[in-house]
Design goal:
Blueprint lengths: L2 E5 L2 E3 L5 E8 L7 E7 L6 E6 L7 E2 L7 E6 L4 E6 L8 E8 L12 E2 L3 E5 L2
Parallel strand pairs: 2-11
Antiparallel strand pairs: 1-3, 3-8, 4-5, 4-9, 5-6, 7-8, 9-10, 9-11
Amino acid sequence: EVQLQASGGGLVQPGESLKLSCRASGFSIRNYHMAWFRQAHGRERELVGAARRSGGEPYYADPVKGRFTISRDNAKNSLYLQMNGLKPEDTAVYSCGASQNVMWREAVWYKYWGQGTQVTVSS
């Protein structure tokens, strides 16, 4: 059975950090572009960051550049998102996804999705 299990969300204060993890089973992430998306209440899902299967520089959305770091460990079949300097506007459900399509910036091209983990940033 194919699964992406996301974890690590929670409630933090502005300026604090969280690390999200996404563990895959039933397939090897080695063959996939992996990404984190987020969806805030009442808003569309947006790409946060992506780690392509070929390696190279990760992609980050402008709002998170310099604060978030995406990484992948193919040996552990896992994807991570280190989030530093969290802001209230980072509040959302964060989901990991796996895509084999060159259009990895678009959520519609993702084959597998995790269930999402809630991140709330509030004082």
